[in-house]
Amino acid sequence: MNRTFTTIFGLAVAFATSLTHAQEIKGDAKAGEGKIAMCIGCHGIVGYQATFPAVYRVPMISGQSEKYIITALNEYKKGERKHPTMRSIADSLTEQDIADVAAYYAVHTKDLKPVPEKAREPDAQVAQLLQKGACVSCHGDNFSKTIDPSYPKLAGQHKDYLYAALHSYKIENNPVGGRTNAIMAGMAKQFTNAELRALAGYISSLPSELQTVPESRFR
Fold first, then answer.
1. Which end of the chain is more exposed for a tag (fewer CB within 10 A), N or C?
2. For residue 4, what are the β-bridge partners?
3. Residue 78 to residues 8, 53, 86, 125, 160, Cα–Cα distance (Å)
4. What CA–CA distance (Å, rounded) separates 92 from 106?
5. For 114-168, how does the pLDDT look when each residue is reduced to its tens digit (9 = 90+)?
6. Model-level pTM?
C-alpha cells in the first residue's frame, strides 16, 4: 500500500513539475525575430515551393496559432512528422527558441482583415465529405477559430500544402514522410486522394488569417 502511494505521489510530483516547467516557458515575439533565419528562406517568400519529399507551396505560418506552431515544431523534433528538413531545423531549437519563434509568427501579419464567423457553404459533395470527417468539430465553423489553440487554422492555406498534409496521415512506415497523429490518420484514411483534394480545394478558398509576409531582404 505504501509503495503504491509512493508511486502515485511520485508521478503526481513529476507531472506537476513538468506542468510548471511548461508554464514558465513564455514566448517573446521580439526575441523570436532574431531566431527565424532558418525559417525565412522558405516561409518568407511568397509562393515558395518545397521540393522534398513532395512538391507543394510551403505553408503560410504568419497569423497561425502560437500553440499550434509550438505543437508542430515539437512533432518534427520528436519525429512524429517525418519531414527531414523540418526535423533538422526543429532539432536545432531549444524549448525557449520554439516558444519565441511561435510568438513571433502568431503576430507577424500585415493588414489583416476580419474573418467571418461561419464559412460559405460548400457544394454538396464537399459538404458530405466535411460531415464524414467531422472537420468543423475541431477546426471550427470557419476553419480559423479552432476549438483548441494547438490545432491549426486551415482556412485560406495553400491547397497543395493542405492536400500534402492530409495525405501524409495516410502514409505509414516511411522514414522521410508521414505523420503519426492517430485522430488525423483515422480521418484521412476514410477518403480517397481525390476526396482529400476536394476538401483541400474548398478549405483553401475560404477567408483567412494566414499570410506570407515577405521579409525585406526578399522583396
1. N
2. none
3. 27, 18, 11, 37, 25
4. 21
5. 999 999 999 999 999 999 999 999 999 999 999 999 999 999 999 999 999 999 9
6. 0.87
List strand residue ranges (DSSP E) for 48-140, in order. 49-50, 56-57
Residue type, 53: P
The identity of residue 79, as a single letter, is: G
C-alpha grid cell for residue 175?
A: 522514414
SS3 31: helix
DSSP conformation class of 123: P
| Contact criterion met (CB below 8 Å) for 149 and 65 | yes
95, 99, 101, 103 alpha-carbon torsion, rounded to 10°: 180
Q: How far is CA 118 from the centre of its chain?
A: 21
End-to-end CA gap in the chain: 67
User: Residue 149: is the preceding peptide bond cis (ω within 30°)?
Assistant: no
